[in-house]
Automatic annotation (TrEMBL), chain A:
InterPro entries associated with the record: Tscrpt_reg_HTH_GntR (IPR000524), WH-like_DNA-bd_sf (IPR036388), WH_DNA-bd_sf (IPR036390)
Pfam families: GntR
The protein, known as: GntR family transcriptional regulator
The keyword Flavoprotein belongs to this UniProt entry's keyword annotation: no
HTH gntR-type domain span: 7-75
Keyword annotations: DNA-binding, Transcription, Transcription regulation
Transmembrane regions: none
PROSITE patterns cross-referenced by the UniProt entry: HTH_GNTR
Superkingdom classification of source: Bacteria
Keyword Thylakoid on entry: no
TrEMBL record, chain B:
Organism: Secundilactobacillus hailunensis
Keyword Nucleotide-binding attached: yes
Transmembrane segments: none
Identification of the protein by name: ATP-binding cassette domain-containing protein
Keywords: ATP-binding, Nucleotide-binding
Keyword Chaperone applies: no
Domain ABC transporter residue range list: 5-227
Matching InterPro entries: AAA+_ATPase (IPR003593), ABC_transporter-like_ATP-bd (IPR003439), P-loop_NTPase (IPR027417)
């Protein structure tokens, strides 16, 4: 995994695992790989993985079962909440940046609509290719 | 039990030149600590003093409260550059030598690492590339089961593929409850695996901080942070 060294590594590990949960790569109830295995696959320190995991456990997204390992919660509500949080934070970033450029709310919506339509076109073409 | 390495008021001179002045440092837990500093800053000297290989320093070094040199040596695995071994020896000879000298040498662990790093047992030391030689040094160092590992510049002059493999073996084979100190003057590639960094500058410890704390507080990469520390000095000079 490539890291941005300006951002705390534990935070990037957390984000990467949350992304996998929201995108469905990790399903509710799935068992996470062992800590050392996660560390090796991400090329990070075991302690840093441990820190990311304990935060995810505190946030209720990962459930630790003693002697059995760490699992993705099977509480759909928690995952849905996480998804909403992430969507809101990405939208906030986008909104703040465009707002700083003095782009009006109406124009933002219009631009986003056009952009999504174009994306849809190119995605469609990709499938046909 | 978590390991604690404590250095108190360490002073070291060589030919009247101050190499280390009043160095105090306390490292504990199962961490990987980066020892950073320019060439000649005293990183190797500090490691050799911790390992008990350099002598005549003032100050104390203790591991888990014990300052006895023989006890300390048995708790430390230092990445010896194999300078004392004849270059016509084969890798298998060197391994046998380690196995005989160190009771804590784990042959099985060595074999796993050697096969992961693709070391050819029949090769002679004189035929090894710099990268392969370093892979051998790392395998020998990590095959010992100790509380403290000291890796002195394991990445200098090594291609990036070998570097990645070595970093990978460190993550895989560092015993869970051990403390590891890695020195380097080039930070970016090992930054993600470091818990803490110690920067040696002007023969003193200039910084000792958690890596993620630096990122969180300064918004800088470890490399930029480290360089800015040296940059300021240049302006003042």
């Amino acid at each position: 995994m490539e890291f941005d060294d300006k951002v705390p590594i534990y935070y990037q590990i957390k984000t990467a695992i949350y992304d996998q949960i929201i995108s469905g790569q990790l399903a509710p109830g799935d068992k996470l790989p062992a800590i050392r295995q996660l560390a090796v696959s991400m090329t990070v320190n075991v302690n840093t993985v441990q820190r990311a995991l304990s935060e995810m456990i505190t946030e209720g997204v990962i459930i630790s079962r003693r002697g059995r390992g760490n699992f993705v919660t099977d509480n759909a509500q928690v995952v849905e909440q996480l998804k909403q949080q992430l969507i809101t934070s990405y939208l906030k970033q986008l909104y703040d940046r465009l707002h700083r450029l003095n782009i009006s709310d109406e124009q933002m919506i219009a631009e986003l609509t056009v952009y999504i339509e174009r994306q849809g076109d190119s995605n469609g073409n990709d499938i046909e290719d | 039990m978590a390991t604690t390495l404590k250095i108190e008021q360490l002073n070291y001179r060589k030919n009247l030149k101050k190499i280390l002045t009043d160095v105090s440092l306390s490292l504990s837990g199962n961490k990987i600590v980066g020892l950073l500093g320019e060439n000649g800053a005293g990183k190797t000297t500090l490691m050799r003093l911790i390992a008990g290989l350099a002598k005549n320093a003032r100050g104390t070094v203790t591991i888990n409260g014990d300052s006895n040199l023989a006890n300390r040596k048995s708790l430390i695995s230092y990445s010896d550059p194999l300078g004392g071994i004849a270059t016509n020896k084969r890798i298998s000879d060197v391994k046998q030598f380690y196995s005989r000298v160190y009771p804590d040498f784990d042959e099985q662990k060595y074999t796993q690492m050697a096969s992961f790093l693709k070391l050819d047992e029949s090769q002679r030391l004189s035929a090894l590339s710099k990268g392969t030689r370093e892979k051998l040094v790392i395998s020998l160092t990590l095959a010992r089961q100790t509380s403290v590992y000291l890796l002195d510049e394991p990445f200098s002059g090594i291609d990036s593929m070998s570097r990645k493999k070595i970093i990978n073996s460190i993550i895989q084979w560092k015993p869970a409850d051990s403390l590891m100190l890695i020195s380097d003057h080039y930070v970016s590639e090992i930054a993600p695996i470091l818990d803490e960094i110690v920067i040696i500058k002007d023969d003193k410890v200039a910084v000792h901080k958690a890596a993620d704390e630096i990122r969180e507080e300064s918004g800088q990469s470890i490399e930029d942070y480290y360089e800015s520390l040296y940059g300021e000095a240049d302006i003042n000079d």
